[in-house]
Amino acid sequence: MFLKQIDLTTALRPSYLPDEDLLFVQDNVGLYEGKFKLPNQQNGQVYLTSHRVCYVDKAEPRKYSVALDLKDVERYEFYAGFLKSSPKITLIPKATKRSSLQPRTPAHVSIPSRSGNSSPAHRPDGAVRVSPVEPAPVTTATWVCTICSFSNPVPSNFDPTTANAHTPLPPCLACGIKPTLTHVLKAAISNATSRQPSSPALYTPLPVRPRPNSEYAGAQASLSGSPTKLDAPPKSSDPEAAFQCPRCTFHNHPSLLSCEMCGGPLISHDLPPELTQKARADTDSPGPFLNSIAPAPGRDNLENIKLSFRRGGEKIFYERLKGSLTQRKWLLQGAPPIPKSSRAGETNGTDPTSGVDGARPRPKLGGIAGLESRSQHIRKNNELVIGSAFEDLEALMASAKEIVALAETFARQVKGAGGSSASENALLAESASQLGLIATKDIVGGSSSGGESLYLSELARTLAEFLTDDRRGVLRKAGGIISLVDLWAMFNRARGGVELVSPADFEKAANLWEKLELPVRLRTFKSGVMVVQGRDRTDETTIKALLSWMKDLHEFPPDRDVPWDWHMFGRGVTAMDVAERFGWSIGVAEEELEMAEERGVLCREEGIEGLKFWENFIDTGEGKEYKKAARSREEDSIVRALKESGFL
Amino acid sequence: MTTPSDPFVFPREYYFPPFFTRQTNLTTHHAQLTKWSSLILSYCRHHRLFKISLSDFAEKDLFFNKQLNRRLSLSDIREVIDFMRKNDNRAEYADSDQKNGGAGKDGAGGGGGDIVWIYWRTPEEWASLVESWVEGTAQKGTVLTVYELTEGEGTRGTEFWGIDQELLLKALQILVKRGKAQIFGQEDSLGVKFF
């Protein structure tokens, strides 16, 4: 499948792969497959990362969220929208992906489907085989090995426009010698240029195999009169007409998919879409070979995903998509590290890719001198990395990983040397690792009005992740409850002083938790203090915990003699006791106690020792009358008001 | 006035320290007021108290638990009394009664007094008690002095024996209004005739 199910984080965001960077977020996006809407994916957020395009459904995020790897994307098209039709970006999967279906299709199905019932008028039925434009379509471009002259396919992800010295190239399939870049580049470019003229106009004759019993051969061919490059004259009378391999001119049996001689593919991949569509519509049989660029609707193996931007954002998305498809970060995964100082040409030679350095022999030193020279090397190397990283921003982005690693080691060193404020250094190191996690106003797009709310919802999700992150355990350390102000300070510190969040935005984002169904919630106490706690921690559970603790106090005798019957009443507790017992801050403990009192579970005692809270032995049922009375009073007043206004 | 008998048994709440603090939760507060008013009524009934001075009693064991060293503050006591006035008319400020002629029941102006009637029996209830006693002893049509009703040998053993004279007059006034009795005579030697 082109679209894959994805995992979501606790905050209902896609969980990123290692090294994956978030580039853009846009909400109110729907998905199309081909021309049809996908019923379950019509309103959601789209996350563009360096590796993927992720769709997170708004209604059923766990069920319908999907992602699409950018490495499977062959092309993308932009549609600006017209009247009520929203702007769309079409992502067309790679041909390799599609042609992978070929072997599964039996040959006898494919033959009639392709040459069977198409209208003769459009067909140059003269059984001409139009040679697919040399050397076949882009995915089957070949380069000829200079050592063994074996023709190898050019890798599908090879793009001549962006290839550079560090693009990994596969070795020759026959002899295993790596080609030079220029060699492959040349092959790819010559392939691309020869493909250029293959526009549909020039391509009128279908590049299909000869139809066995064709009588109109010559007539049709002359009628069409199109500038076709004809191959060797076909044996039209032969029902088992063989046809030539475009590469080595060997005559193959028509049912073969690849040349018997040279292994070259015999199927043309770049049929003009309009023609194939017609053929499909006529035959009604799926022609898997003819996987056209514009597939017939409703076939699920022909995926061509459209993102429909109902609330703007398509332009930035398009720009960044273009950028990330050019950068192709996914190739870096498993690729050799960033070349150290290709410019300076002087490194410690650990980089296997830079041949110059590898050739330079390293003086073998032992003992302290060796250690010293090693550390000198490392320092020089660090210098180079930092120097080159800051040369321009693009480079910084590329070497972000290393810089982060460096920052961490620096932090560790500082800690080792100073040893003073270990926690702050930990925070520094932590904040460095936060570089990838932030949602900034820059990343989040959207047009005028939508942008702000999207930014807030992204911020809310980031916050929820920050809170529930097990490694940091922000909530757990604070006893499951933390005041919003503390959290704000902590969060901005974790951001390391960049892209700070304003208190107003912060509060707005916190207010969104409930709506977004995130695992944390914001609570406002009576006094107006706002706290953050896990969704599972409700007032009921807090009260339960308080009560069970107070029940224990009936069993354990108090520290000193008390005049009352502690077996019956237990004892009063102050906010301080509660804070100590549950690990809350005193402010929170006070608020929780008052909440419990508000619910009638506890009652208060103001004495010389301060405010103490007790289990409620005062209200043993009398309160119910009061509530009933209050309710009936309320009802009465409503009835009266209704009467007065003439409704009753 | 007081009858020295077995000591009054205080309810459980009386030994619960928060009982002496005004509760902020409305529901709990309501329960607290209810409990206090029933405590005051049963305490007065036990000691046959008809009216109490709040400032006096703030120091007495009713509102001051010496064992716990907790007391109900005077303002809280007044709140309880107000609650009793409004609920079932179980209390009344004696001095406001004089000023406003008994009309200040629902006004907040009644809050100033120190002497409070505690109606563990309301005047109506007292009136029907007297009436049934008169009927029971076949004294309809006879004339009785107020002293005879409160202190006389004939009423010894009845509930209203030893009743506060003022309270008895309140009850008799109700009977007069119903046309069941007639009061005549001077201030200090009042006579009542029952019909």
Describe the 3D structure:
Chain A: Component of the endosomal sorting complex required for transport II (ESCRT-II). Chain A: Component of the ESCRT-II complex (endosomal sorting complex required for transport II), which is required for multivesicular body (MVB) formation and sorting of endosomal cargo proteins into MVBs. Chain A: It is found in: Cytoplasm; Endosome. Chain A: GO terms for molecular function: phosphatidylinositol-3-phosphate binding; ubiquitin binding; zinc ion binding. Chain A: It comes from Podospora australis. The complex is a heterodimer of chains A (about 650) and B (about 200). Chain A has helices spanning about 60-65, 95-100, 105-115, 180-195, 215-225, 275-285, 315-325, 355-360, 365-390, 395-400, 400-420, 420-435, 450-470, 475, 485-495, 505-510, 515, 540-555, 565-570, 575-580, 585-600, 620-645, and strands at about 5, 20-35, 35, 45-50, 50-55, 65-70, 75-80, 90-95, 140-145, 150-155, 245, 250, 305-310, 480-485, 520-525, 530-535, 600-605, 610-615. In chain A, about 40% of the residues lie in helices and about 15% in strands. In chain A, a hairpin with a 6-residue loop joins β11 and β12 (about 250). Chain A has 22 helices and 18 strands. Chain A folds into 5 domains: about 5-100 and about 300-330, PH-domain like (Roll), CATH 2.30.29; about 105-270 and about 280-290, no CATH class; about 355-435, no CATH class; about 450-535, Winged helix-like DNA-binding domain superfamily/Winged helix DNA-binding domain (Arc Repressor Mutant, subunit A); about 540-615, Arc Repressor Mutant, subunit A (Orthogonal Bundle), CATH 1.10.10.10. Chain B is of the alpha+beta class. Chain B has 7 helices and 8 strands; from the N terminus they run αβαββαβαβαβααββ. A 3-stranded antiparallel beta sheet of chain B has the order 1-5-4. Chain B has a 3-stranded antiparallel beta sheet with strand order 6-8-7. In chain B, α1 packs across α3 (about 75-85) and α5 (about 125-135) crosses α7 (about 165-180). The longest helix of chain B is centred in the first third of the chain and has 22 residues, at about 25-45. The radius of gyration of chain B is 18 Å and the shape is elongated. Residues about 95-110 of chain B have low confidence and may be disordered. The interface between A and B is medium-sized, with 27 and 24 residues.
